[in-house]
Amino acid sequence: xxxxxxxxxxxxxxxxxxxxxxxxxxxxxxxxxxxxxxxxxxxxxxxxxxxxxxxxxxxxxxxxxxxxxxxxxxxxxxxxxxxxxxxxxxxxxx
Length: 94
Description:
Structural class: alpha+beta
Strand content: 5-15%
Distance between the termini: 43 Å
Number of domains: 1
Oligomer: single chain
Order of helices and strands: HHEEH
Helix content: 25-40%
Radius of gyration: 15 Å
Strand order of the largest sheet: 1-2
Mean pLDDT: 75
């Protein structure tokens, strides 16, 4: 397997403390690797979550639309890690 500089940058960014700046940097790196992403930082609990997903061709409907999988995974992780400060439900699905 060939080395991927983008993955190396992600691994470097993951070391050390968490901050909003670091999360934004990670989000930028994830954006270059993924088709869909979600991220957030909860300073009061020192929790950062970044989720990136890619899709197989069958994930798209006939119009090219796809389900926002990263948001679903992100909300599940956020609810598990910080149940008292869980991400709000998706509007219209709550």
